[in-house]
Amino acid sequence: MKHEITAKYFSQEDLLESGCLDLKMAIEAAENALVSFSQNEVLFPEKIVQIFNEDTQERINCLPATFLKDKICGMKWVSVFPPNPVKFGVQNLSAVLILSEIEKGFPIAFMEGTLCSNMRVGAMGALAAKHLAKKDAESIGFIGAGEQAKMHLIAMKTIMPSLKECRVAAKEDVEEAQFISEMKPIFKDITFIEAKTNLERSIDGADIIVTATSVQAPLLKAQWIKPGAFYSHVGGWEDEYAVAKGMDKIVCDDWGTVKHRTQTLSRMYKDGELTDNDIYADLTDIVKGEKKGRENDDEKVYFNAVGLAYVDVAIAIAMYRRAKENGCGQELTVQKSMIFQHPQIKDWIRL
Ligand SMILES: NC(=O)c1ccc[n+]([C@@H]2O[C@H](COP(=O)([O-])OP(=O)(O)OC[C@H]3O[C@@H](n4cnc5c(N)ncnc54)[C@H](O)[C@@H]3O)[C@@H](O)[C@H]2O)c1
């Protein structure tokens, strides 16, 4: 058995059943990952993008990262097929993750990846809120009621147990109702309010604001944002330029990357409406205490994460450890032996 290679396989259900939907764990992993990266303990090569349709942006991306101290290299393989909901009535995003140890270089785990990916988005928003939202935030307002919005609520409530009111606006009433029917049983101490597609009703006066929509339009208006609010921007172009202009602090996960993408801040930068000097900090600077977080109760703060895949890998490592510890997942045999050491090899070869 000297040449046997085994690894674990974790379906989404294995991960859920083994307690991996733990945003506290994810936020901690994200925070540690930001610090490790800043200390040059993470290898993070450029992602590989394959676009199959320029119009619809159907694509599969390959995003690797290595945590040198953990001796684990990982890769997220993520498909984004925007026409899926309309064309096939299915989700547009799917992902798998592979982890390998880097002593022998052998694979150790294959796992479903949307859970980890969505947890990373929520964890980064909540990590930013930990440092930049009001400590006693009570109300949260959403524009968008999809998968990211739901995970963001779980992450925000984890970091901010004081939240007791959640307002939600989506494109259709039915999506708001679904959001509430899925979230209400999880959070009995939160009062949920459907905004009936009235975006202002969802946002006006909220302590924490989240936009997580699939549309490219300036939905969020600056006049709805009260002093002291924290805004987590998740999607693409979702807010009018006046929103960022009216903020006291703008923080990104990585401004150097954000400015070359297509979010509102990136558009503003390209349109000459925002410069490097308008960005207060990257989240890592705040996590490490090199820049201050919130400094008073009136500050309005804007947070935009473009998505750093090394954070996905860090969360995947934490999930792998949790799931393995709890005995979940299937043992996979990747190979039992070297190719030509299989006794049956002469019968298996097709000549
Ligand atoms: N920043 C990141 O790291 C990151 C990671 C993953 C996804 N995203 C982005 O997050 C966004 C949301 O993703 P999701 O998986 O939750 O999508 P989803 O399809 O599950 O939900 C999208 C939501 O947008 C709402 N919406 C669409 N048009 C609207 C309108 N005109 N007014 C109000 N609401 C409207 C829909 O009602 C729906 O509730 C996407 O843009 C996605 O690309 C960002």
How would a textbook summarize the main sheet?
Answer: 8 strands, mixed
Just give the CATH class of the largest domain.
Answer: Alpha Beta
Judging by the overall fold, what is the CATH architecture of the largest domain? Answer: 3-Layer(aba) Sandwich
Number of strands: 16
Tally the helices. Answer: 13
CATH fold-type name of the largest domain: Rossmann fold
| Residues in helices, as a percent range | 25-40%
Radius of gyration (Å)? 22 Å
- Stretches where pLDDT is under 50 for at least 5 consecutive residues are none
Gist?
With 351 residues, the chain is an alpha/beta fold.
Write the layout of secondary structure elements.
Blueprint: E1 5-10, H1 12-17, H2 23-38, E2 42-43, E3 48-53, E4 58-67, E5 72-80, H3 84-88, E6 93-101, E7 107-112, H4 114-132, E8 139-143, H5 147-159, E9 165-169, H6 173-183, E10 191-194, H7 199-203, E11 208-211, E12 230-233, H8 241-245, E13 249-252, H9 255-258, H10 264-270, E14 281-282, H11 283-287, E15 301-304, H12 309-325, E16 330-335, H13 345-348
Parallel strand pairs: 1-7, 8-9, 8-11, 9-10, 11-12, 12-15, 13-14, 13-15
Antiparallel strand pairs: 1-16, 2-4, 3-4, 4-5, 5-6, 6-7
Helix pairs in contact: 2-4, 2-12, 4-5, 4-12
The structure holds nicotinamide-adenine-dinucleotide.
Residues 121, 143-149, 169-172, 175, 212-215, 219, 234-236, 305, 307 line the site of nicotinamide-adenine-dinucleotide.
